[in-house]
């Protein structure tokens, strides 16, 4: 059963109503939710008679088409949400835009005032009801992700000792053509392709992650070496880029035809270091574990996961 319930608009009212029936639920998040579900009747008041007589009707809400059924009208008329909010007994995050012209922000105030602590309010200033601006949607996702981390229990995967290797889990998040959710122990990341390649650029690309692995490994390796040798290394900055070049342009490459991948790594080293120490640090950069992995023979075994 879910530990966190998140609902937008009427979905927010639904999770507020359902939370008390789900013992495993630890926290609730509402986004642009009405404090009184019956409030939405005014949004399609001209269609109510037809909904009552025909059983359903397609209506336009916030610029989008929805099918509203008679059962829905009956359900919302029976809800006494303020009482349920008051006895929620769960952490609550209320998110609402002052510019929401579908569900007025006064509804957020009513929800917040009805609830007991712990409760939080986040203003989505400038956002519309449907969060059609990608930046607004991304902001909501980031805030919710950070907030729920206080209430979700750590999983077994997240409590693996640091000394043990951690698996990486990639799943499609279905919000974009190529968008991916990345989970590494307790960490959550997003991956995508740039817009030029058909993606939404909601996160770094696979090659961005590859460069990130090499760059962070390089910087960490230099720091560990400097500490071990007592070098006055103040700061390290690593900038990387990736492209493909013709094999014949690479004098040190074994391939003689086609193209080869080229990674250019530029390292800025700050500190009172002499020429020999700087030279040695650049040599050490080539000894970072990820650098060695990229240059060594790698065995990748692929199988179907049950």
UniProtKB/TrEMBL annotation:
Pfam families: OsmC. Coiled coil: none annotated. InterPro entries: AB_hydrolase_fold, KH_dom-like_a/b, OsmC/Ohr_fam, OsmC/Ohrsf. This is Osmotically inducible protein C. The lineage of its organism: unclassified sequences, metagenomes, ecological metagenomes.
